[in-house]
UniProtKB/TrEMBL annotation:
<protein>
    <submittedName>
        <fullName>Aldo/keto reductase</fullName>
    </submittedName>
</protein>
<dbReference type="Pfam" id="PF00248">
    <property type="entry name" value="Aldo_ket_red"/>
</dbReference>
<dbReference type="InterPro" id="IPR050523">
    <property type="entry name" value="AKR_Detox_Biosynth"/>
</dbReference>
<keyword id="KW-0560">Oxidoreductase</keyword>
<feature type="domain" description="NADP-dependent oxidoreductase">
    <location>
        <begin position="15"/>
        <end position="343"/>
    </location>
</feature>
<dbReference type="InterPro" id="IPR036812">
    <property type="entry name" value="NAD(P)_OxRdtase_dom_sf"/>
</dbReference>
<dbReference type="InterPro" id="IPR023210">
    <property type="entry name" value="NADP_OxRdtase_dom"/>
</dbReference>
């Protein structure tokens, strides 16, 4: 297993991060514990979760993934010190009225309270990397394409959020801080304020990055490089579209159910767009033409990008986990990379 450090910190993480959004919904407790054990035994030391997991988000399961991880840790004395554990505080409401009563703001007090709740569920005294799940201000995200100044509203500013995170760091409850679903402006502003006021500096940004969503290549890459902030790439398989499971029958294939076919709410997301499925078929066939499985090529591509520090994989069974791990460390040929870029030139980023 290869390791890297995040940002300017000494936080050393495996280049494969185990994502946990399926734990507690598609994956029950016994399977969750077995998968966590196998991931750690395979050399993964980096586990990412969030207060709102599992996904799809529901009031009945809010916080359940953290609770599952907490029970797993409690049953394995000494394991916590071997791991880098990341979690996230949800941003302003996106229709989730059970999170802070559907508030359209993420206040400093909310960040403190959410972290305390996560610590309790995770049964740990500290979180290695605590992230804001999505920005408080209006930005185009989760399928949005355009910034609209008319949608701006008064919310808690970045400075106050950063000060709240600083209090958690000072108290020893959080070691390092990061962002998720963030823009180049957000990265630059968090860094500027931290350096100006002597507050904790973000070490990472967790954003979608895959063959069907290369948005980080359009400006975020420069911001990350110049500010020395690491990218944690999530959805490297485009919510399963780049595994090939939807190629033959689309979302209707009963033999290969995935989140996009199992959950109605997922069918409305960017990953289920006809354009995304069509682009994925092109990439998946390209992989087969070069003697690779679609997942192997997609994961190797993300892992091989200079801006990727660690790739977050989502799994539901051990075979999936082993297949994903095997894809890392592979280097794609210059000819194959050129063909990938040619497809992107035609299709761009359908799952933006």
């Amino acid at each position: 297993m290869e390791f890297t450090t995040l940002g300017r910190s000494a936080l050393r993480v495996s280049r494969i991060c185990l994502g946990t959004m399926t734990f507690g919904e598609q994956v029950d407790e016994a399977a969750t514990q077995a998968l966590l054990d196998h991931a750690v035994a395979s050399g993964i030391n980096f586990i990412d979760t969030a207060e709102m997991y599992p996904v799809p988000a529901r009031s009945a399961t809010f916080g359940e993934t953290e609770a599952l991880i907490g029970r797993w840790l409690a049953a394995r004395p000494g394991r916590r010190e071997q791991l880098v554990l990341a979690s996230k505080v949800s941003g302003p409401s996106r229709g989730y009225d059970w999170i802070r009563a559907g508030s359209a703001d993420l206040r400093a007090a909310d960040i403190i309270a959410a972290c305390e709740d996560s610590l309790r569920r995770l049964r740990t005294d500290f979180i290695d990397l605590y992230q804001i799940h999505w920005p408080n201000r209006h930005v185009p995200m989760f399928g949005g394409q355009y910034f609209d100044p008319a949608r701006e509203q008064a919310v808690t500013p970045i400075e106050e959020q950063l000060q709240a995170l600083a209090r958690l760091v000072e108290a020893g409850k959080v070691r390092h801080i990061g962002l998720s679903n963030e823009t180049p402006y957000g990265v630059a502003e968090f860094v500027r304020l931290a350096e100006q006021q002597g507050l904790p500096r973000i070490v990472s940004v967790q954003n979608a990055y895959s063959l069907v969503n290369r948005v980080p290549d359009n400006g975020l890459d420069e911001a990350l490089h110049r500010h020395q902030v690491s990218l944690l790439a999530y959805s490297p398989l485009g919510f399963g579209t780049l595994s090939g499971k939807y190629d033959a029958l689309g979302l209707a294939d009963p033999a290969r159910p995935g989140r996009l076919s199992l959950f109605e709410s997922m069918k409305k997301q960017r990953w289920a767009r006809p354009e995304t499925l069509a682009a994925a078929r092109r990439y998946n066939q390209l992989a087969r033409d070069h003697g690779l499985t679609p997942a192997a090529m997609a994961l190797a591509w993300v892992d091989g990008r200079w801006l990727t520090a660690s790739t977050i994989i989502g799994i539901t069974d051990r075979a999936q986990l082993d297949e994903n791990i095997a894809a890392f460390g592979r280097r794609l040929s210059p000819e194959l990379l050129a063909e990938i870029d040619r497809i992107r030139w035609e299709i761009r980023d359908p799952a933006q």
